[in-house]
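WARN retry 2 of 3 for item q-0093 after timeout on previous attempt; input resubmitted unchanged.
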Amino acid sequence: MKIALISHRLPPSGAGQALVIYRILQNVDPTRYCLISPEPQPGSSKATYTAELPGPHYRLPQPFRVKRGERFGLRHLREGMNIPLAVRQRASRIADIVRREKCEAIVACTGEVTLLPAAYRASQSLRVPFYAYIFDDYSYREWEDPAAAFWARRFEPRLMKNAAKVIVPNEMLGDDLRKRYGIEPVVIHNSFDISPYEVNGRPRPDNEEVKIVYTGEIYEAHFDAFRNMIEALKAMNRPDVKLHIYTNRSAEDLDKLGISGPVVHHPGRPVTEVPNIQMNADMLFLPLAFDSPYPHLVRTSSTTKLGEYLAARRPVLVHAPKDSFVSWYFRTHQCGVVVDQNDPSRLAEGIQSILRDDALRQRLTTTGWERARQDFSIEKSRADFARLVGWNEAEHR
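OK item q-0093 returned
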């Protein structure tokens, strides 16, 4: 079985979706898949988060677009025409690639709004199975663009109901789609290679700066949670406690967003360096915004760092809305301290509870390690994905 995998982000990008794709396909025979994306081929990127996948890469060209109408306030109408036009063009291109590569199935990931419907249309024309990999809720992720949101809502029922299978990264998003469309999604958690975490990090030092660590991108889904952390640290009046942020966002950008003060900024690191950074933290911070432009996406978000944090065997401090998957997971499995109120003083209490209680820290790290191995093992996710698309052991080493 050979598949075509379509995604707007591919390795070696540091985007979470690209990391998941890399981890799933890393040990797969490269003759068993091809990769399709509207983004430039990986070789033209300066990102070095992972190696490139060795399978064939194809770039979808920019589709023809109607450009008239901007002067007369008809932009949304014009974009409403461009989206179905782009779907038809991209479907034709995808079908050509799938036919040339002799692929027997198409796996399309959420991203740019045209990719899923174009992949589905191509699958229908070629009579091959279509798998929808829903990293983010498809119809809700287009919150900024009214035309894209309109078409996503129109496309989604057919895509979900007619897919050979819908893959989701967590139980909450799966429940939402089950209620909406009467389907039974397959949960494949955003897993990772746990082996770099098998050697535990250093013990928490005495008489040394306390490092609260965050690794990853920072955007609208995080802003107010980070501001709450800054206020909490200031209120604690402990100069020895600092938030260390490892991200590609510049210190200047963070300062403009109000994320400055007791903060140590570090540039983003390659994925091979991240485990050591996380294991040498005193506490790991997992934030999601309480007031964001897309609360539904925050609620169903399944950040790729969740499993990594658990495997690092360091106490995890979750600051996220009560109804979010992240809060639900840590609360249900009692593997982190959850502060699910938009209140810096409560967050300060959460920090203090971890710093003061040795037994709590030990309990959280032990339970976290167990959950990481049980729910986020890359071997399990690879096996689940291989079984879903019909790969045998020889194809998926």
